[in-house]
Amino acid sequence: MEYTNLNMPAAGDTVVVGMSGGVDSTLTAYLLKSRGCRVIGVTMSLWDDSFPIAREDDGTAKAVKDACFGPGEADDIEECKRFCEKYDIEYHVIDVKEQYKRDVIEYFKSEYRAGRTPNPCIRCNRMIKFGALLQGVEALGIKYDYFCTGHYAKIVRPEEGLFCTDVRPAMIATASDISKDQTYFLYRVPSSVLEKVRFPLALMKKSEVFELARQAGLEAAERAESQDFISSEYFDLLFADLPSKPGDIIDLDGHVIGKHRGIEHYTVGQRRGLDVAVGYPVYVHSIDAKNNVVVLAPNSALDSEGLIADDFVWAGDVEPPAASEGSEDLEVMVKIRLASKPVPARIERYQPAAEDSFAWRGTAWRITFEAPQRAVAPGQSVVLYKDGVILGGGVIVKGI
Fold this sequence. Notes:
By secondary structure, the protein is α/β, with parallel strands linked by helices. The chain contains 8 helices and 18 strands. The strands form 4 sheets. A 6-stranded antiparallel beta barrel has the order 13-16-15-14-17-18. It has a 5-stranded parallel sheet with strand order 4-3-2-5-8, sandwiched between helices. A 4-stranded mixed sheet has the order 10-9-12-11, with no helix packed on it.
């Protein structure tokens, strides 16, 4: 299928830019201002000052890496303010703490405690950055033509309707710089929201972004990048509301080979921090939350022929038809984590067994890989691409 890139903001357009203080969002605002747009900068306020501070043994605050959720938010906001004042950009800080706590923090904790591997960035993009933040913008009475961020992705429209319909929604396509492509994180943002969303850095490489930012003398060009949801020093504090429940670590034959310190500290594919000695390399194969057990296995045992996923979203809300085996529309490329490369796969509807007690969320789908894939992690997302464009995606229930 052929796709058309949607137009970028032009001179005179009112553009809201989601700003974090980082080089990507700062350069986005700078470029749009230079283009003659009326730019309005907005920053999400996520950090709750009542959250404990990570401290050293002597009581001093730990030096921690910058992250999305952390006490460094105040410095980020001040940096955004300085930039906006310098370039005569209207600026607002929008408080989304309660929504973030409910929809991201509590989700993150509950998923780990259920033995699954959450993806807070996907959740945040859908519920907060392209949800609560924009609701906050509208609550301020701000009318805008576009909402822009520094994500590396494109917004396109198919020249024909999806799956033999007349629906031609705004869709997410991979960025020019594949090494920085962030489409996996964005797959749950609805097409209705994407109609006004644009990513001005979509055609740039990261090296170009830094070079342009340095040429413009932007303070953000000298700032270290943040890639984490939360600094590792805060992980234990995040889970301090409930005591961890230690339990057995077993091998695939059920033999106890160690003790774990709480299943929230483990994820499928993990090798470090297992504290077991069995004479050969082992990895987390699976997590049995019901029995509070972590299962380890050799690397070769972590391969899966496919997976089952549910809680799907589809571009334009157009679900693939129940096509016959061999239908071209069911041949896709899939990603099972951000760092994985897209791989060929076939998708088909999955009918759960009558004795299956899992609480399914919507239609379940079976994804069968062309070649086995390693460490399929329940709770992570599987995202479906066709010609570099996202058709949809869902949450992994299990590998098969």
